[in-house]
Amino acid sequence: MSAIRIGNLHKSYGATPVLRGVDLEVAAGEVVCVIGPSGSGKSTLLACLNGLEPFESGEVVVDGQHIGWGPERGGARQRVPERAMTLARRRIGIVFQAFNLFPHMTALGNVMEAPVQVLRRPRAAVEAEARALLARVGLAHKADAYPADLSGGQQQRVAIARALAMQPAVMLFDEVTSALDPELVGEVLAVMRKLAEEGMTMLVVTHEMGFARDVADRVVFMDAGLVVEQGPPAAVLGNPREPRTRSFLGRVLRPETQPA
Amino acid sequence: MDFEWDLFVDSLPTLARGALTTAELAASSIGIGLVIGLAGGLARVSGIAALNAAAILYVTLLRGVPLLVTLLFFYYGLPSLGLLLEAKVVAILALALTNGAYVTEIVRAGINAIDRGQMRAARSLGMGWGLAMRRIVLPQALRRVLPPIGNEAITLLKNTALVSVIAIPDLLRAGTDIMTWQANTFSPFAGVALMYLAMTLPLVWLVARLESRWRVA
């Protein structure tokens, strides 16, 4: 069973269509990178996957839970109640471009918040796990630091630990290195690479072509609200079939990732 | 009319009793006003149209009418509705509702000033709207609005002086009473002024202390 199943997803902001019938599946344990020009709908797609953005039509199933619209019955779909969506989000980790750490809590507090408040688990057990998670992202020594005292790369690693604390079935990454200074990008990508190696199901919207090439099982190229092309990284990045993919890659690829 | 030192000193015990009433009125109205304001602010951002409309109507009415008028309206109007309340209760009602209207708008502005990403992050971790509001958004918003809320509290404390028009023996009323009985002198008002000042200073201090204690992010 796929961890994420998206079928004919349509979404618009007012009169402007953003997603125009997206189909995409992600298998459990698979790492899929979504690339494409700005405005192609990549980030909106992620926001639809955890129900933060409502969408007009289509089927989204994450970890067996319907998001947005329920299963089709007699040709019609019912909206998934907000309460069910809130429950479903527990199993869907998301990391944002802007980190969005809680500034009034320490790094440890950020990681502990959801397991304690949402899952109502005992503090002591959660704290032990949270410290282990911070160690996993290389920030055991920053447990008591507030977000304002952390670098962008450190904040983003805390944000990853915070999402992992809910033991999600899938992890969504929304351009998580785009707001970082270049020298801080590597530390965040290293954490994500490790996560991928450990078998986490990941859907990664990114501009990091090197990461997509090395880590992804599959690369998806989106443009103008549609999946244009997808396949193994070597194929999509190294030998794209579609002219739109070729023109995009020609614009963004740095020399070291230039197709041979 | 000269300043009469003896009269000033003699008036202090009477004034102190009035000050106690003023403090009582101010403390209860500030407390109730904060609760109303918090509820009103949450109603404004709840996304529930009926709650939002009710809050807007409330704020518009209470903020648009002079407190003195609200006070007199309640004092003379409520009995005709069959509500016979003690003058002090009427005063607290008028003061707290007016204060609550201003606090509603302050709380709303404070919540809206918090980056939307905070609510998104909280919701994405499986928090419901209420939990996300209570744990993530409100703590940040309330820190930011502490100074304007402190201002409102001080304004309210001073506005309690208006209640003397509905025959409540507050600090100002104590002063005017002394003036009427004692040879028409202004001397007791020095005591009145000092006592209002003495009551606002702890409020100023309290707000400053809360502000420095709560780390503003």
Order of helices and strands of chain B: HHHHHHHH
For the termini of chain A, the CA-CA separation is 36 Å
Number of strands of chain B: 0
**Count of strand segments of chain A:** 10
Could you list the spans of chain B in which at least 5 consecutive residues all have pLDDT below 50?
none
Q: Give the helix level of chain B as a range of percent.
A: over 70%
Chain pair forming the biggest interface: A-B, 29 and 20 residues
Quick rundown:
Chain B: The chain crosses the membrane at residues 20-43, 55-77, 89-109, 189-208. Chain A is α/β, with parallel strands linked by helices and 260 residues long.
Give the topology:
The complex is a heterodimer of chains A (260) and B (217).
Chain A: E1 2-13, E2 16-27, E3 31-35, H1 42-49, E4 57-62, E5 65-67, H2 82-89, E6 92-95, H3 107-117, H4 123-136, H5 152-164, E7 170-174, H6 182-197, E8 201-205, H7 209-215, E9 218-223, E10 226-231, H8 233-238, H9 243-252
Parallel strand pairs in A: 3-8, 3-9, 6-7, 7-8
Antiparallel strand pairs in A: 1-2, 1-4, 4-5, 9-10
Chain B: H1 5-45, H2 49-64, H3 67-80, H4 87-113, H5 116-124, H6 129-159, H7 171-181, H8 187-213
Structure, explained:
The complex is a heterodimer of chains A (260) and B (217). With 260 residues, chain A is α/β, with parallel strands linked by helices. Helix content of chain A is 36%, strand content 25%. Chain A has nine helices and ten strands. Chain A has helices at residues 42-49, 82-89, 107-117, 123-136, 152-164, 182-197, 209-215, 233-238, 243-252; strands spanning 2-13, 16-27, 31-35, 57-62, 65-67, 92-95, 170-174, 201-205, 218-223, 226-231. Chain A has a six-stranded mixed sheet with strand order 6-7-8-3-9-10, sandwiched between helices. A four-stranded antiparallel sheet of chain A has the order 2-1-4-5, covered by helices on one side. In chain A, β4 (57-62) and β5 (65-67) form a beta hairpin. In chain A, α4 packs across α5. The longest helix of chain A has 16 residues, at 182-197. Chain A is globular, with a radius of gyration of 18 Å. Chain B is mainly α and 217 residues long. Chain B is 81% helix and 0% strand. Chain B contains eight helices and no strands. Chain B has helices spanning 5-45, 49-64, 67-80, 87-113, 116-124, 129-159, 171-181, 187-213. In chain B, α1 runs antiparallel to α7 and α6 packs antiparallel against α8. At the A-B interface, α2, β6, α3 and α5 of A face α5 and α6 of B.
